[in-house]
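User: My instructor asked us to take a sequence, write out its structure as tokens, and then describe one feature of it. I'm not sure where to start. Here is the sequence I was given:
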Amino acid sequence: MKLIMDIPDELKLDEKEFKTAAIVKLYELGKISSGKAAKLLGISRIEFLDLLSEYKVQIQPDTEEEILKDINNA
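Assistant: Let's start with the prediction itself. The structure tokens for your sequence are:
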């Protein structure tokens, strides 16, 4: 799916910042894993977890399924 929208100038956000904020919020809401979020942003999972502090979002504990995926992808 592709989403096209106008970002109001007063938000002073470029496309990358807007995308990052949206993905961080999806992670915070538990809609996506940290690994998926990192992949969508084109960064490592560790970089994504570091990024969360900039948005004042706490790291969510991994589910057993996420841990097994990480082990299989290592």
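For the description part of your assignment, you could build on this observation: The chain has a mean pLDDT of 87. Try explaining in your own words what that tells you about the chain.
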